[in-house]
Amino acid sequence: MALSSEQISKFEKDGYLLVEDFLSADDCDQLMSACHDLVTDMKPEEHNTVFTTLEMKRTSDDYFMTSGDKIRFFFEDGAKDKEGNLIVDKHKSLNKIGHALHVLNPAFRKVTFDNKVKVCQYSICTYKIKMLDKVKNKLHFQYFFEKDGYLLVEDFLSADDCDQLMSACHDLVTDMKPEEHNTVFTTLEMKRTSDDYFMTSGDKIRFFFEDGAKDKEGNLIVDKHKSLNKIGHALHVLNPAFRKVTFDNKVKEIAKSLKLEDPVICQSMYIFKQPGIGGEVLPHQDATFLNTTPMKLYGLWIALEDATLENGCLWFMPGSHKDGLNGGRQMIRNPDTSEGQPLTLFTAPPVKYDDSKFIPVPVKKGSMVVIHGEVVHKSEHNKSNKSREIYTFHLFDQKNTTYSKQNWLQPTAEVPFTPLYPTTPA
Q1: Of the N and C termini of the chain, which has fewer Cβ atoms inside 10 Å?
Q2: Nearest CA-CA partner of 281 in 324, 239, 313
Q3: What residues have CB less than 8 Å from 141, skipping those under 6 apart?
Q4: 5-14 and 115-125 are packed helices; what angle lies between their axes, rounded to 10 degrees?
Q5: Residue 55 — φ and ψ, nearest 5°?
Q6: Which residues of 79-101 are buried (b: 16+ CB within 10 A; e: fewer)?
Q7: 27 near 110, Cβ under 8 Å?
Q8: Which segment of 25-29, 44-48, 250-254, 304-308 scores lowest on mean pLDDT?
Q9: Are 207 and 176 contacting, i.e. CB atoms less than 8 angstroms apart?
Q10: Around Cβ 127, how many Cβ atoms within 10 Å?
Q11: What is the distance between the alpha carbons of residues 377 and 282, in angstroms, rounded to a whole number?
């Protein structure tokens, strides 16, 4: 339902746009039925008002001026006689009803706040770019990214590039022996079982299963290629296909547009969002898990398949990065290293967010979403029969920046945080 580039261009040119088949015939009938019920219950003698469209003039101005938070009825000129008595069929007498149907009536509220409306809002309000080689686009990139905390770069990878990454991942999973990776990643709690396996994954390629993919004895009970939640966290170093994309010149151009002086790649992940079982990821900020002072963390998220409302596209709370790290919530290494204690803990409880403030960001295969470390984002459960596979990695600018020693992820001698630029500035 996202608007195409052609539709957006037409809207910007003409100031209006026709979106056909936005509602089904049944949806329309339901709204008309809801309106019919309102009119049936309306008492004409309580609404002595007229709306004349020729002059955009209302009689009984106070009734009109105080209608913003109510459902009120405005008659056609001539629907009543001089004494205020209705002289036509009540259902044929009205010019309009306003002005709070979207709040006070369930049928109209449902349509007004439907995801399709949010997608259209996103399509028009979210800035998109295709190329970064023009000064104008770089300036737009900086402006809109700083305003919203995220930005969509369309056609970042070609379809062939995406297919090559998916093929490389398929090979990794084919060679993987499930019995050697008894791990589960549950997105609802951002919790991992087998903590040591997770904590030592920063310099390795490791496999994290969906909850329910194995039985109590650790045996796989689903197809191996449908069992994984993600792979991480050193694909960008240890696998040639992912290394090639991560250190491509286009990524360097993105980093330069973010005005990063000495960026390093700290982690990478392949996330599957399996059909039907790919779990919900609750609203969060990436800086909760990878904290720097000052905040200079960024995520680059690449869709290897179309990411839609049905299969679990990203949702953002635009501008939320300006509030900093909400509640001071961080996931840190547990200072209590005694036996039986978890290896990580959160410094504060989860923050509750208003769902109505999120905007969906459905994207086409090959698109990149650039994500500020403190922008609040989430994704929904994949209820479709299609996967939503993506490759994502995080980088931060180490120039005049302190990377927290309390972060779960730490550089190692085998895989230090890798500079993005060919030579690291002094």
Answers
A1: C
A2: 313
A3: 129, 132, 151, 257
A4: 70
A5: -110, 5
A6: bbeeeeeeeeeeeebbbebbbbb
A7: no
A8: 44-48
A9: yes
A10: 15
A11: 8
Tell me the C-alpha distance between 192 and 199, whole Å: 10
Q: Rounded to the nearest 5°, which phi and psi values hold at 38?
A: -60, -45
Alpha-carbon span 84 to 80, nearest angstrom: 5
For range 271-292, the mean pLDDT: 93
Residue that has been written with the tokens 């770089």 in this structure: 138
pTM over 0.90: no
Taking the C-alpha atoms of 232, 238, 239 and 244 in order, what is their torsion angle to the nearest 10 degrees?
110
Q: Please give the Cα distance from 421 to 423 (Å, whole number).
A: 6
Q: How far is the C-alpha of 30 from the C-alpha of 93, rounded, in Å?
A: 21
- Confidence category of residue 123, pLDDT binned at 50, 70, 90: low
- Provide the pairing of β-strand 128-129 with 150-153: parallel
| 106 Cβ neighbours under 8 A, 6+ residues apart | 34
Other Cβ atoms closer than 10 A to 10: 15
- For β-strands 331-333 and 263-271, DSSP reports them as unpaired
- The residue ranking higher by pLDDT, 222 or 312, is 312
Q: Which residue has the tokens 């399709």?
A: 116
Torsions phi, psi of 13, nearest 5? Answer: -80, -45
Q: Buried b vs exposed e over 318-350: b needs ≥16 C-beta within 10 Å?
A: bebbeeebbeebbbbbeeeeeeeeeebeeeeee
pLDDT at 133: 44
**pLDDT tens figures, 309-357:** 899 999 999 999 999 999 999 999 999 989 888 899 999 999 999 998 9
Residue count (the chain): 426
Mean pLDDT, residues 115-135: 59
CA–CA distance, 395 with 403 (Å, rounded to integer): 11
Interval 28-47 mean pLDDT = 91
Q: How far apart (Å, rounded) are the C-alpha atoms in residues 262 and 283?
A: 29
Residue 282 and residue 185: Cα distance in Å, rounded? 13
> 30, exposed or middle or buried, with CB in 10 Å at 0-12, 13-18, 19+?
middle
Residue type, 301: W
Is residue 392 within 8 A of residue 271, CB to CB? The reply is: yes
Most confidently predicted of 114-118, 276-280, 388-392 = 388-392
Label residue 423 exposed, middle or buried (CB < 10 Å: 0-12, 13-18, 19+). Answer: exposed
